[in-house]
Design goal:
Layout lengths: L4 E7 L3 H12 L6 E8 L5 H8 L4 E5 L5 H11 L4 E4 L10 H11 L4 E4 L5 E4 L2 E4 L11 H9 L14 E2 L16 H11 L3 E4 L5
Parallel strand pairs: 1-2, 1-4, 2-3, 5-9
Antiparallel strand pairs: 4-8, 6-7
Helix pairs in contact: 1-2
Length: 205
């Protein structure tokens, strides 16, 4: 297995956010990547912006909006990487995020999903204002992880954007396109049921 990473980025009519996210991806120190933007029937200038500013990005377009889960599935379908990383158009990541996450994943016990830290942020007058970092426990039972998904009052320590997913997982599991929210909890839960284990590590951001 190689270590090429496919970054899947769903978007719909948020060209300015997508531009900022793509600029962040360009700063990654890990370079063996491909970027797949799935345009879920945007009605703004997303298509023109991508063609003019990011012509090297692989673009998949939906003629009709099908939602973020369908967009992610479309991205996975054309991805050629050994690893899948889901990066939403309103996310940012530290330049060493992929490199650190890959190193931790390769060093982990077999069948591990390494979940790195995340933090909320806001853009205030072009400045990034950061919230506190959170990440999953280093070792905990699958039952405890699944219980966290189901508890509406629990601290959300796992998101789909903090995990480097093995491409082989998506031969068995896909995003549930019938879900309009918590679809990432569903994906994580079914990954666990397939035999993978979520382990938190303070790597990347």
């Amino acid at each position: 297995m190689g270590n090429k990473v496919s970054i899947i980025m769903p978007t719909r009519s948020r060209a300015s956010l997508l531009r900022r996210a793509l600029e962040g991806v360009q700063t990654q120190t890990f370079r063996d990547i491909e970027i797949v933007v799935v345009d879920d029937a945007s009605t703004d200038d997303t298509r023109a912006m991508l063609a003019a500013e990011f012509p090297w990005v692989k673009v998949v377009r939906h003629k009709l909006s099908r939602g973020p889960s369908a967009a992610r599935n479309s991205g996975v379908a054309v991805a050629t990487g050994d690893w899948i990383f889901f990066h939403d158009d309103d996310d940012l990541m530290h330049p060493s995020h992929l490199a650190d996450l890959l190193a931790a994943t390769l060093a982990a016990p077999p069948n591990s999903l390494i979940a790195g830290p995340s933090r909320d942020f806001a853009i205030v007058e072009d400045e990034v204002v950061l919230g506190p970092a959170v990440w999953a426990a280093a070792e905990r039972s699958d039952t405890d992880t699944l219980t966290q998904f189901l508890d509406p009052n629990s601290l959300r320590t796992i998101t789909h954007t903090t995990i480097l997913w093995p491409r082989s997982l998506f031969d068995k599991v896909s995003w549930d396109e019938t879900l309009s929210f918590y679809e990432d909890f569903d994906l994580c839960g079914r990954a666990i049921l397939s035999g993978l284990h979520v382990r938190g590590r303070e790597v990347g951001m």
